Amino acid sequence: MQIAYYKEYSPALGREMEFKRYGTAGKVCFVFPCMNGRFYDYEDFHMPEAIAPFIDSGKLQLFCVDSIDGETWTAQGDPRRRIERHEAWYRYVTEELVPRADQISGNTEKRMTTGCSMGAFHAANFFFRRPDLFDTVLSLSGMYEADYFFGDYSDELVYLNSPVDCLAQMPAEHPYIALYNSSRMIFCVGQGAWEEELLASTRRLDDVLRRKGIQAWVDYWGQDVAHDWPWWYRQMNYFLGKLFP
């Protein structure tokens, strides 16, 4: 597969940001790394190789995003400063990287988000906040509530970045619900080692989606399914096969 590396200045963040593209055709998919991860982690953990048939056949192209979790979600110190920094990164992705990916790919159709663990949270968060930009989300082993990282602190920005809480308060007539229901949403979690907290959070998300009439595929894999890459390889191939038969 063709791989391209980019390093470009971000006005929103005030610094250079890096990303990589895998493939040259198909649906644009933004990949968010695991906690405190980097844009090259997906490659280092061999996921593009594991899902190569979808990339090589021109069904899917990946844009692997760099995170700043260490300044935001996992940082110490003033929570307001942390969430404001996250919002700067959010603007970088939505206002800078999305149009840049459109320019590179030549594809302006709605995009996909995906990620594992913390990346699953980011994938879901971007999808739920901007269904005008994204119409597909595939989240594996995610945590979907902000209080896991911010504890008792809450403000309007923390709330905006807590999918379970935002969805729970969304009015039945909100126009985003129709956008969600015209999209494809897959949330998967195992029930084995290191998945306990993610399983509980996924169940809460599942409950909120059902109560709001939002049609999503929430899939619970077995008690042998651990929070680890070998299982994510299998899950990605299985679900991509459903999304791109």
- Distance between the first and last residues' Cα: 19 Å
The major beta sheet can be summarized as: 8 strands, mixed
Overall geometry:
globular
Structural class: alpha/beta
Average of the residue pLDDT scores: 97
Total number of beta strands: 8
Gyration radius, rounded: 17 Å
Strand content: 15-25%
One letter per element, helices H and strands E, the order comes to EEEHHHEHEHEHHHHEHEH
Number of helices: 11
- The residue fraction in helices comes out at 40-55%
Largest beta sheet: strand ordering: 1-2-4-3-5-6-7-8
What does this structure look like?
This protein has 245 residues and is α/β, with parallel strands linked by helices. The protein is built from 11 helices and 8 strands. It has an 8-stranded mixed sheet, with helices on both faces. Strand 5 (111-116), helix 5 and strand 6 form a beta-alpha-beta unit.
